[in-house]
Amino acid sequence: MTHEILKGKVAVITGGGRGIGAAIAEKMAALGADVAVLYAGNQSAAESVCLRCRQTYDIRAESYRCDVSDFNAVKETVAKIKADFGTVHILVNNAGITRDGLAAVMKEEDFDAVLQTNLKGAFHMIRHCCGLFIRNREGCVINISSVSGLAGNAGQCNYAASKAGLIGLTKSIAKELAPKGIRCNAIAPGFIATDLTGNQAENPLLRMVPLGKMGTPEDVAEAAAYLATARYVTGEVLRVDGGLAM
To answer: Is 4 domain-assigned?
Structure first.
């Protein structure tokens, strides 16, 4: 993909301090975009990502602490980003948490917390970036879903529900905002080696992956780069899962 194809664009990545989010932030920077990295708690990790982006790609990168589950916190953070960068062109909703457990014994607060961050957090970001997109007559939203949202996963009813909800949100936003020149797509990663998944090299479920291995955050970042530049693709769910959910 041509270097600096996103030059002059501003990309916002939630959960951008590590794992998939960090890889996406660095990929957007590699393509010339300025990046705003949102994080929940680990400031040093987010600032390290920004430093790498600035030093390696000579773009502007800033970090912002934000609890995406908080409607007003997101509103304030988007206002700060607008003040700092002028606008937003690309939004990657990557922030996510897990509170795994069997449905029969899951605590209500564990179910609510996962949906509040993973699903409602994405809505909050879209809601507060919408005005900027509409004024620009362009915009690109990329929601990081999961194969769990396509096929379900035992012990993850809350996580799978949040990720399935993201797919419905993606398609609805795609239809709603297409007349304004705004695209919305989703990525559904499979087994990706991150801090969240841990080292699952010996996980017997890997036998179900046709390609026979875990993916990397960079694999997901490549998909995000494609969707950020694919001007005639909207409402799509792109699986990055080694064939797991075929």
So the answer is: no
Give yes or no: 159 in active site. yes
Q: Where are the beta strands (DSSP E) in 75-181?
A: 90-93, 139-144
Q: What is the pTM of this model?
A: 0.96
| pLDDT tens column, 165-179 | 999 999 999 999 999
Q: For the chain, how many structural domains are there in total?
A: 1
- Rounded Cα distance, 221 and 25, in Å: 8
| For range 127-153, the mean pLDDT | 97
What is the domain-level CATH number for residue 113? Answer: 3.40.50.720
Coil vs helix vs strand at 35: strand
Q: How confident is the model at residue 141 (pLDDT cuts 50, 70, 90)?
A: very high
Which one of 57, 159, 226, 232 is the catalytic residue?
159
Domain that holds residue 148: 10-240
